[in-house]
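User: I'm putting together a teaching handout on how sequence relates to shape, and I'd like one worked example. Could you take NADH-ubiquinone oxidoreductase chain 4L from Takydromus sylvaticus, show the sequence you're using, and then write out its predicted structure as tokens right after it?

Assistant: Happy to. First the sequence, then the structure tokens directly below it.
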Amino acid sequence: MTLLLLMLYTSFLLSLLGLSLHRTHLMLILICIEGMMLTLYLMMTTFTSSLNISTIAMLPILLLAMSACEASTGLALLVATSRTHGTDHMKTLNLLKC
């Protein structure tokens, strides 16, 4: 295992650990998910560049586009939640209320 792959695996696991432990604010959850997506993008980019296969060269760009869509949707939910509830604390949100 190269040093680059070790660093990428470590950063993905740290983002996953942050997602599982720091669930107090919605913004922290979105930042951890974004870190995981960027790490997956870097892993996929290094994987496709090491294989030199032209058919899978578009996959990192598609993953980056999906990550941008996920980030914009998450920020829209954050704004809507903070406007309706006044805060982004996850303890104050009850999804069962109508």
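A couple of points you could highlight for students: Residues 3-85 form a domain with the Helix Hairpins fold (CATH 1.10.287.3510). The radius of gyration is 17 Å.
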